[in-house]
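Usage

Read records sequentially. Each one opens with the input sequence:
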Amino acid sequence: WGPVPPGKRATYYANHHAIHHPEFCEHAPCHAYSANFPRYCPPKPNGRKVCELLAGIAPEEVIELVSKVAR
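and closes with the structure output:
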């Protein structure tokens, strides 16, 4: 779920499976969406181009979760 805490969203959907890594950003959870990113994110010394939480989700994690759910 990236920056949004899964408990705020995934709780209401029985077939929803969150991948969430709050350890990738010390400011998580937050509610920064594409419309306001990175304007509301604290600056980093080398700039901020992506949401660290979303960038931290490995494709393999998504594939593994999909294969578990699809069974």
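Summary fields computed downstream for this record:
- The mean pLDDT is 80.
- The first helix runs from residue 6 to 9.
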